[in-house]
Amino acid sequence: AALVWALGALGFLIFGKLPKGWAVRLLPLGGTILGIGAADWVMGPAGLLPAPFDAASLRLAAMTGFGFAGMGLAAWGAMQLRRTEAQLMQARRARDGRAFGMATGVMHLAFLQILFGAMLGALDQGRSFPDWPLMAGGILPPEPLALEPVWRNIWDNPGLVQFIHRGLGYLVVLLGLAAWLRGRKSPHARTRRAFDWLGVMIFGQAVLGVGSVLYAGQWHMALTHLVGAVLLWVLVLRARFMAQYPVQQSIRG
Is 124 left (phi over 0), alpha (psi -120 to 50) or beta? Predict the structure, then answer.
């Protein structure tokens, strides 16, 4: 994948198809692709990390993190390329700093939530606690700190990983609701619409998450939940972008 990216970027550069300044902007995207391979090598079964850091859950979380970071960079770049640099500079004068900040908070929380979702998938324990809102009849899962050393439970204890994943989901919903309410106050129609879609997808993803729990992680529910994570990630970035670079509406419409 890194070779495909490098050849593509080099080809665009040689034939002058890259906008001014975009050669440097493509480097972080290439870095995320290299990061996926590096995480697979360093954290794999024959990798360089000692126990307990050689856990499969950490490996998948690192690879997923680099993948979503690269997806985010690509989506952000695609949104920027739809306008000229002059249009972006002019739009930024009307930025909504509070909406941008709240969307940034949702972005960080959603990213952390995605990492813990990857850990849960690596442990193959999405069906271990098919009850909600409790876990095995309690607020906390059984033996949440059973592993030694104790901090290993954060990524290697299926019950605690799912508990954290659920908790982060609640925080994403709450902060997403606050961001949606703030985005609705924007004077720019397209910014309001972007935050509307953000709110819809956060609610939908929460429903999918609860459904996956109650149906014991059936593959079709789990796959739909994964696709929902991708859609939510892109919509969070779009809301953040539209708060940073709003499209000003004409007087006529």
Answer: left
